[in-house]
Fold these 2 entries.
Entry 1:
Amino acid sequence: MNRKLTTLTILAFAAFAALALSAACKKKAPTTAQEARPPVSVRPSTGETNVPPPPSPGARKDVEAEVLSMDIDALNKKGYLSDAFFDYDQADLREDARSALATDAQWLKKYSTVQVLVEGHCDERGTAAYNLALGDRRANAVKEYLASLGVEGSRLRTVSYGKERPFCSEGSESCWQQNRRGHFVITSK
Amino acid sequence: MNARRRTTCLALALVAAAALSSRPLAAQAPPPTPRPAEDIQIVIKRGTERRLAVAVPALFAPGTAALQAKVADPFTATLRSDLEYAGAFALADPAHYPSGTRDPSAPEAADRWLGTGAEVLVETRGEVAGDRVSVEARVWDLKSRKLILGRRYTGGATYVDRIAHTLANDLVKYFTGKPGEFLSTILFVTEQTGTKEIAAMDFDGRNVRQLTAHRSIAINPSGAAGKIAYTSYVRLFPQIWTMGMDGGEKKEISTGVDLNASPSLSPDGTQIAFAGSAKGNTDIYSIGVNGGSLRRLTTSRALEAAPAWAPTGRQIIYTSDLTGTPQIYVMDAEGAGSRRVTFAGNWNDEASWSPDGARIAFACRNEGDFNICVMDFASGQTVQATSEGSNGHPSWSPDGEKIVYSSRRGGSTQIYTMDANGQNKRQLTQGGNHSQPVWLP
């Protein structure tokens, strides 16, 4: 009897431990992957894609109507679309940028009337002339990736600001990372 | 600095002097050596050119004290400052000028002027009639006691500075054979109003006037043949615009491609070369100054940017990252025959051709900050002319003696000038940010 209880306790404990462990591992894995990527010291604010899956088609329409009833400024402030961040002097999409853009693509497919401007931005290092071209590459890399995920290219326009309109103006890596991005601006809905 | 480096420095100084000077020393300098493996080098510290000693007594303008303060004093100050700046002259100390003696045709008078160390006397007399000023200038060679130049200038009393600049230009032209730059203009980007706008100033940083008020982003000014081209974001997407030297007659050019950055006017003002983009691939394009006849001049998948015309209008230098790092290339104006020009360092960009076409200046970087490098185009011999701050966007003075550039130090970007060998650096702008200078005749 006593022994049976002990076995049960051990089993319960083992099950709990296994659960806890697996939860910890699940949490741990992505964090490590992110930390392993060198200069990603600043994470984009994702805005969490604040559109929960609707329980019924009727409710879904209501949520869509609610999102699209906002004026453009409010819509942009909500941050439904996550920016794509780049490494220094690169226009290749990092893994974190691809996953942000995958979520953006879902949102854009859901709100299929929304038109978007993709701004290419660069940090202050490098010449103004080169950075204008690099920003153009970045904006187009974002556009092409979204198009590959099924977002109509005609809904996406690109513009490069090079290093002319930075988000942050300190001479530090965390600030430079803020400035190396493809930034979304919703232009019509 | 070790001995070998010092030797290299000296050798480069001599080579640079040969490249930069038309004076006798050039003939004694060794011929350019073949391009060394590491051809970006040291800043040159000392000049070796002989300066002509001139005495410039104050403008003699009989009249009231007010006249003295409004006309004579500013005229004298401007003329002296110009001649000191010119590089070809040394100003004999006014404290030692003989009083009352002006005409040096008599031997005793000439001796007194020679006693100041001067070889040449620039004597000026002014008269004011209404709102007009006239200045008579006589230039004497003191050893021979001969009048070598006599000129009369008239103009509005409110711009005596311009009269002094004109005389200074004539003196430079007479003694060096090169055009003076005292009436030249520097275009630049100012952020004084909170947005980036195109502005112009005199060669010495005075007389700033804002030429655009797009309240957006106006950048990349270029000028030739009395016109200015630039890039503006006023229509949200960047477009090339042109305007007159005073900012009038603004016109937008529709190119049909994206980006429209770094427009460069051809020397005759008929064409604009620029960095255009199609689907994220930037290339060098050209278009007529009134729009139309768009041509794509480069066709690589690499990034091409920052075109600049040769003074002949037959070639264009530009930046390409074809080999992995941004380097400077040259091609003919139709886009054929491109070849790489810079090989040292991991970033060379924003090149500008000297007025005689013999040299290019560009932003160069190996490690750390950007500097200004000057390359003899034929030999590839390169001298680094700056060592402080992060420097860029060089442009040559009309006489090819000086370079204007931007330098970022302590969080602010300002415009500087220097001799093409790195000497005599001068800060022209203060406060805020000022960038992308372009020097026009």
Note: The CA atoms of residues 363 and 372 of chain B lie 5 Å apart.
Entry 2:
Amino acid sequence: MRQKATPLRQMVTPFLVVCVATLIATAARASPSMKHAPPAEKTKEELFEARPPPFSDGIFPCMDCHKDQKDRNRRELGFHDEQQSVFDHDAEHRWCLDCHDYENRNVLRLASGATVPFTESYRLCGQCHGDKFRDWKAGIHGKRVGNWDGAKTYLLCVSCHNPHSPSFKGVKEIVVDGKVTIAPTLQKLKPEPRPHRPEEMRDGKRAQEFGR
Amino acid sequence: MSARKGLNVLQGAGVDPLGDGPADASRRAFMRTAAAGAAVSALAGCGVDLGEFLRGHFKELSKDDLAKVLAKVEKRNKERFGRDTKVTAEGPRPGVEFGYGLDISRCVGCRRCVYACVKENNQSPEQPQIHLIRVLEMDKEQGVDLAHSELYYDADAVPRPGKFYFPVQCQQCRNPPCVKTCPTQATWKERDGIVVIDYDWCIGCRCCMSACPYGARHFNWGDPKLPAEELNPNQHYLGNRPRPKGVVEKCTFCIQRTRNGRYPACVEICPVGARKFGNLLDPESEIRKVMETKRVFVFKEELATHPQFYYFYAT
Amino acid sequence: MSGVLEFLKGCVRQVLAGGKGYKAWVAFLLVTIAIGGIAYAQQIRYGLIATNMRDQVSWAFYVGNFTFLVGVAAAAVLLVIPAYVYQWKPLKEVVVLGELLAISALIMCLLFILVDMGRPDRFLHIMPLFGTPNWPRSLLTWDALVLNGYLAVNLILVSYLLFKTYRGEHYDKRIFLPLVLLSIPVSISTHTVTAFLYNGMAARPYWNASILAPRFIASAFCSGPAVMIILFQVLRKTNELPIKDEAIWKIAELMAYAMFLNLFLLGAELFKEYYSATEHLLYTQYLWTGIGEHRTLVPWAWFSLFSSIVAFVLFLIPATRRNFFTLNLGCLLIWAGCYIEKGMGLIIPGMTPDTLGEIYEYKPSATEWGIAAGVFGIGFLIFTLLVKIAVPILVGTFRAPERTGASAPATGAGLATH
């Protein structure tokens, strides 16, 4: 029976060798390619923390209220006045459903129709604000805390820029689900007190004695 | 310098150099101990520490002496503030050259950096007040014009219309005029770029303050009044340890943080992300990206101080 | 050496004896020194916050006085050069008094530096061997070197000359002359180095001008000799120290030339600032016309210029130079002019506006006035005591006991016979 098996083995072995070789080659090519060209968000998500989206109390998940969708048309809303009254984000051309998904209000909608969760809202902003998005990914735009040499925590765009009135005014710390995050405010920041003038600097102990 | 090393060895060995005289019978050692002895006995009456008086320069301290010096600082902290502190003398990391970026298209003049620095660096907050960061309000129409800038702006909301903000702190120059002019080498530039001061070596002559073009060095005119509960216990010998009166201090890029990989306090507190910090030698760092892609300039460039502090416009 | 002990005892006796005027003067000086001591104790206790210096103006009254006094110390050279380089006899007699003034001025300089330091207890840090002086890069280490060097040269010269004269002996020209001639470049160097200290600071455009070193030398030769002129007249009256009118007039004439140079250099500076009219003009403007409502120094600047010009004219015209009333008036005016110009008139505009454009109008505090008075008291007291010892030696009334009755010493060891 040996003679019959040999031709079979002779056929299979080279095939096996080629398969294994291909697998090895693919694996070898795969690791360097992952080092050289990682998608930026993926690296960030691996290395960096993010602060949660600054939801106001009780507003999320949206589908708790938006169960029955009816009207797609642009109109004046009967609710969400907090957002509607300040809305100036290209208000002439844009309205709510350009960013919020009609079917599932718990996610946001990209121009292509694809959806992104609120924790990745930067992808939505980045569609139009590409230069800011690039800078933000590089760490040039926006606040980061942590280590220059290691793990950092970044903020979402909406932590500083109210998506309904995006120009920067002010920020404050809030707690969302027990986690501290940053939320934009509608008032500009109040500066800390001015420094003492040199004439105002006196030794506290003997303030009256020294002077002009 | 052998005399001082000899002295250090003896001190390390617990030998009182004034009692027995140094084993090294060189003339320098004798002169030093004899003259120092006379001066010391005079000063001992004024409460000046013998060991501190005879100490050598920081850069010449042996490991043991350095440990003793740090322990002494911790002890002094305990006496002054009643709190335990950790004082280190962490050295510069190899392959690191710090760079600082300040985005003046973002700064809104809120001064949160100023006060975060005061907290982190154990500065005297009131009477006398020392701020290592000074934020200047300038007119957008005038541009960077110091003669028309305003340090003492008061406002209910910032930024004020038509104004922009220009914070100044130590630029950690590569060609520092303060280091050049210091008569005792109490200030020097470390390998990672931070210009440091040994507060126990400074004689308070204030040459460095006259020489600094950025007004970045500040003098302890009176006793610093730091409340014990506000003390930051994580300290660096060349950085945020509480200073005595009569010496100069300045921004050290939060040396106690940055040498451990952390951002300086001002970078972390800035609410608009106007401050960027990192290793200029790392091509992936934020500060390198800033240098490569943004319009960067240096303050008072004509003075050729070559700062490691860069101003830029991100937009 | 019993001779030295005798000499010292004799010095003490000289110093303790004196007329009512002398005693009143010394008492006055002791009072100012006491005031200075009290003020300094306050400063030690509370720190330099007792002054009105702040970060914005971190060098002020003390450093201003220091700068002025370095000039006064350099003034001895104005006597040494004609006397020993040009062998002008009438001045040779009194060179030693100029050196005594230099010694007193140098001690005042060192004291002003000491009171200006935040940590004077750490003075060892600047010394070689004990500390780590930043030599040669730091101009302050150079300053310490040349000031102490000049003090040492003068002390050696004066002690040697006076002791030899006291003993009625000739001084050895081989020791004396080289030292005297050495004192000329050392003296010029004290002033040049002090000028370079300010000159080298790029951060302070008002000081960062090449003209500073020549101006310092020129104004140095104006201020110190004014004291000498007044002193010589006092000594002539009280001790019958025979100083010729010629010597006094020659000094005044040299001062006139020095003041001309000083005024010329000032004019050159003002032209550069006002004509180029860059932002650096602000500092000069602060001094001469003020900036906005900040005008503290303006009246002083103009008073100083007026005094200097008037003094220049008075010294230049031989008639007014020879009239002792106008001569003394000129001395007072030139002293005042130089004091303002080199003291506050140099330091404060260098720092106002500060490096970030802020204007802090500085005025000395009571503590600073007190300490300055004390330092001047010490300096003038030292000068008084030294002169009180030196003049009797020169005149011949204070001699070593075994030499009593010996003839007046030969030429070169004291006063020329006349």
Note: Chain B has two domains: 1-54, 90-315.
